[in-house]
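WARN retry 2 of 3 for item q-0093 after timeout on previous attempt; input resubmitted unchanged.
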Amino acid sequence: MRDLSGHRKSLGFLYVFVHLLVLLAAGALAYFTWNLVFVMAAGNSTRAVPVWENPAVPIMGVFIVLLVAMAFAGLSQGLGLVRGRPVSKGLATLLAILALPTFPLGTVLGVYSLWFFGQEGWDVDLQAA
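OK item q-0093 returned
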């Protein structure tokens, strides 16, 4: 059986890096959505329809919340891998599949994660401790 501890730390740092970028992107998306609400409200002075009734605003809100949840899950997964703590193979597989379409970093993370968690003994160093 191969020693995968180096791959474990590398994958952990990759998880942290990619999901920090996801968190940054979610923040930028939230900022632009918030500004869009004010632009729509300023142009909506002729009728009394609230801006929140536009279906784009709640949809963007849900999308931002999902991105933040995915970023925090990936950060916790990455920090667990770096620190050598037990991590969830199911969560890692889900995050890897969700990351695959986001070329190039997400694709690298997804393929590397699927490869790592598919190896026999990916958690052997945790069982010895």
